Every structure is written in C-alpha cells, then in structure tokens.
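Troubleshooting: if your tokenizer reports a length mismatch, compare your output against this known-good record of 137 residues.
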Amino acid sequence: MLANLIEFATTHYVLSGSFVVLLALLLFTEMHKGGKSLSSRELTALINNEQGLVLDVRAQKDFSAGHIAGALHIPYEKLAARVAELEKHKAKVLIVVDAMGQHAGGASRELKKAGFNVAKLSGGIASWRGDNLPLVK
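Known-good structure output:
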C-alpha cells in the first residue's frame, strides 16, 4: 500500500504537490478562522489591563474542578442559545478557553459571527496548568 502511494506520488508529482499545498492552505485557514490564539502571558496581560474577559466553554464539572479567576462559564453546547448574555461585554476581547483547544475555534467562530472581538487560549486550560498558573474552584 505504501509502495503504491510512493509510486503514485513520484509518477504524478504535480498532482501530489498540488494536493499538499491545498491541504496546507486548508489547515492554515481553518486554524485562523476562530480568531487569534493567545498565550497564557498574553491572556493575563489582557485581563490585568481590563481589556479582556475569559469565557470558559468546558462542561460544568470541569469548570467546577478549576477555572481561571473571573471567568464566565457557558458550556460549548449551550453557547448559541446563550450568546445574548455576552452582549454587555462587547467592548472587551472575549478569550475563549476550553480543555485543550478542541472547541475554542468553533466557539470563537460563532462569537465572531455575532460581532464579538474574540481570541482563544492556545492549548486551552491544559496550557494554563502547564504554565503553573492558578485556578480557582
């Protein structure tokens, strides 16, 4: 099977090269649709300057186990129905946080469509913990 793939790629190098380029472009655009990705340090700076607000989209049990201080909580599954609750925060950057980054892009896209200035924590709460930053319960 691998030998066939290699044979195809070498025989049809223009087609294979085009596929790789298109795949890279697709990945690049999908990763950037949900807004800017922030590091833990950038998130902290926005919060300290009162320019950002953390929106945690994890499940209730995960949020209760530990979250970033001052974070609002709306589970990912309920975000579309509860987006009106965020209207009063439109002047700030909403920083979407999830477990490891798997839902932040989708939530950010939804919020961007609704007119919010959105960013996401790169790597989610796992990267926050990895940087040994505090969580509140």
